[in-house]
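Methods — Computational structure assignment.
A single polypeptide chain was analysed. Its primary sequence is given first, followed by the predicted tertiary structure written as structure tokens.
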Amino acid sequence: MVRPMPSLCTQCRPFLRGLSIAIAFGFVTIVRPAAAEEVANPPGPATSIASAPSTDRLEKSLPPSVEPADLPVQDSKVRELSEEENEERADASSEEPGPKPGISISSSSDQSKPAIADPSADNKKKKRLELVPWRPPPPATDRWDWIQLSSGEWLKGTIERMRDDEIEFDSDELDTLDLDWEDVVQLRSPRRNVYRFGQFLVVRGPAVMEGRVLTVMVGEVKQEFPREDLTAIVPGADQEWDYWSGNINVSANYRSGNTDQSQYGTQSWIRRETARNRARFDVTGNYGKLNGEKNEDSVRTNLKWDIYWSRNFYITPANFESFRDGFSNIQLRLTPSAGIGYHILRGKQDLEVEALVGYQGTQFGSVVEGESETAQNASLTLGVMSSWELTKRVDFDASYRLMVTVPDVGDTSHMLVTMLSIELIGGMSLGDLDLDIGFNLERIREPQADEFGEVPKKNDYRLTLGLGLEF
């Protein structure tokens, strides 16, 4: 029996089966890496990936340059795009294609390596910088005073004084500043200043103020006080000189020729002030000659001691004044007194009133025969003192005093003193050099006649121009 010959299809079937297997294997080898890369880098501007596929099959088809560790881990959350990034990608998709500034394009050799999202980089973008306020060094390690204003600014310098809602602060760059105490929110001072609270409590030492609490280091103990109770800060706990201030004024006038005239004068004061006490000494003197003969010779001194009972009210337990003027027929006049005073205004505009009760004794130079050479009276003194800081370099001071005497009202006197100070040179080690322009008026109601019956004039006027050293 003759067997039939197999058909061509039957003979080629094994060959076709092997070819199809080879083609399928090659397709898997070529397509799977691209699919892995597509999974790692999803298309679309706002597509987020929550998990990555399994890497079991991909590891079998990886090129030699790619390690399995470079693949995303299965079921790991890569990142979630923020709304800002979604908007940025949406805007980028509407723009023309092409590379954008700041975007790096990988080369063809790197395209076979899957791109892995970096969660830490995204977290860094999402962090917000927290602004930490700047603070000066602790008082123990710094020699400067620091104050912070309500605007947030810090000033470095030296606290000159603080009293009645105003602080005087000396800065090397900004010179002396007069600031409202309510504008100061923090204070740091390493110096042993004197701090007064209420009426009688006084402490000294380095201090730090934050918020509504002022902490003073008294020895080794920290003591805390409410800010509202602070009434004064006075530096100078380390040196006695820091308690003192003053103004030394000198004026001179000289003329020669047909008339020989010389005139010299001073109108000066010096003050020592602590947290509770204030002592002041004033002196006004004038001396002159005309054609060799003396035509002016007068000296007035005043020593005053004040004790502050409260923030604005003070007691004057002692006030002593002496006056001599030969051309007014007053050889010597002494007026001891005591009284009270009150500050109506404090700060750049200072207004102060006082009332003193005392005794006045006068020794006349000469009198008409039969009259007494002395006079003794009780005295009532009413005074108003004011000070204005017109500009940073110009100050104006004025005072008026009325002294009423009883029973002899004829010795009643008036005195007006004004001074305009213009700073010429500031920042010197000894103080500031000022140009002082002064005007004084003195009036006696009934001057005493001398032995020849001549009665001095009631009013004396004086205009002076001089230089003053303020410290």
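Note: DSSP finds four helices and 21 strands in the chain.
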